[in-house]
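User: Could you check the structure of this?
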Amino acid sequence: MSMISSTHDGTLIDAVWPDRGIGAPARGLRLAVLVVAGTALMALSAKIQVPMWPVPMTMQTFAVLVIGMAYGWRLGGLTMLAYLAEGAAGLPVFAGGAGLAYMAGPTGGYLAGFAVAAMLVGWLGGERGWDRNVPLTLVAMTLGTAVIFGLGAAWLSVLIGFDAALVNGVVPFLTGGAIKIALAAAALPFAWQLVGKLR
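Assistant: Sure, the predicted structure tokens are below.
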């Protein structure tokens, strides 16, 4: 089934590597390659540490936002679920640990937020066309980041209390989050312009 919307050109990945007109085996191979590539990018982004104050910044939320919007809500969500399954199985794909016990710890809400945020920005991009210009992409990326922070803080507040969750789990990451929102908001419209020139 094509993920291309009837009112838009579909997702960026559909424009780069269409699944229309190919047989089921090729479509399955395309799906597998994209999911594996997305989970590999997620694992790599978790290991990248950019020195910042007050805390170092990983590129995970940037990768979540870009993958979600470029892939669309179905494939973006599937990719994040596959990423979480890899981590649950013990593969070293997260920033600081692996396994179900790690996922149930302080970062559990943020990890769950990855899947929800990817589907949200994927829907706004692929179904609504918000990934074609910077202002709408900026709004979508801000909403996606808010989902990640919101679910992360909600779960963290169960463990350490609401005030401590905000102070330790949200406030230190706001500057890095804003930088990643801006980068993602610039990247998607630029990629669409590049694809348009190559067509």
